[in-house]
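Check out a protein:
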Amino acid sequence: MPLSEHEQRLLDQIEQALYAEDPKWANTVRISDPRSHYKRRLVKASIGFALGVVLLMVGVVAAQIWLGAAGFVVMLATCLWGLSSWKRMNGFGDSPPSPNRGRRPQRQRQSFMERMEERWRRRHDEH
């Protein structure tokens, strides 16, 4: 249903006020392609992974086990974050898997009384 002229003017005024108040936020909201958001996340994940490698190496060289472990955890977390962004960017996992995949369709369970009524109707129809 299209907006009336009055509603369209109000919406335009609100949009102009948002652009005037915070142009950076308005520009990021205006981006319609969500893949650009996921690309930024991938870049951030790559930088985080490199930081994790640096932490791991510094921990090994300085014989600081906790620093090496922290670097490994950073690497692992950024890999998972980047992988999830990559999957969403490429459209994997958009639709959830069907719960009945690979199984026979099951009948809805009927209550005891419903089954008895069904038997009664069948018997009554036969006679």
Notes: The mean pLDDT is 80. The radius of gyration is 29 Å.
